Amino acid sequence: MLLTIVKLMSLLHLFHNVPSADAEKIFTCCTTVSRKEIQTPITAFWLQKWNPPCVKAVIFETEGQHICSHWSEPWVQKKVVELHSTDRPSCLFSCRLFQKSKAPEIQPPATPLGLSSGSPAPATSNHPPPLPSGRQR
């Protein structure tokens, strides 16, 4: 499951500015989050990286509103995987709509939902490791 989440995160683009359904109000970023599970249908989601005053969050879009949820809640992680695996458009569709905005693009995290492991990711290579004693293949 963690591998699925890592793959999901590598596909997503993070944005600071997310337009709201209400044309007069612009949703800038989440400064607080909720741990309460959302009961209304979710139509899309975005990931927001910590960048004060914005906090690390998963932003769920429902009918006409955005809800800032705590990224580490089990129900949030489950919903992100569920939305990504369905045929319904989620962030991949919605984010494409906003790529022309001047919002800075942030690289997706290398760990599930941006959880820092405290150590760098291991380096990978397409080459096999060297043979012992300096022998060549």
Summarize the structure.
With 137 residues, the protein is an alpha+beta fold. Helices cover 21% and strands 15% of the residues.
Task: Explain what the structure shows.
The chain has 137 residues and is of the alpha+beta class. The chain has a single domain, classed as OB fold (Dihydrolipoamide Acetyltransferase, E2P) (Beta Barrel). It contains 3 helices and 5 strands; from the N terminus they run H-E-E-E-E-E-H-H. It has helices at residues 2-11, 74-85, 91-97; strands spanning 18-19, 26-27, 44-48, 57-62, 65-69. The strands form 2 sheets. The chain has a 3-stranded antiparallel beta sheet with strand order 3-4-5. 20% of the residues are buried. Residues 5-24 and 90-132 have low confidence and may be disordered.
Strand order of the largest sheet: 3-4-5
The parts where pLDDT drops under 50 for at least 5 residues are 5-24, 90-132
Number of helices: 3
How many E-type strands? 5
Distance between termini? 37 Å
Major beta sheet, specifics? 3 strands, antiparallel
CATH class: Mainly Beta
Strand content: 5-15%
Under CATH, the topology is which?
Answer: OB fold (Dihydrolipoamide Acetyltransferase, E2P)
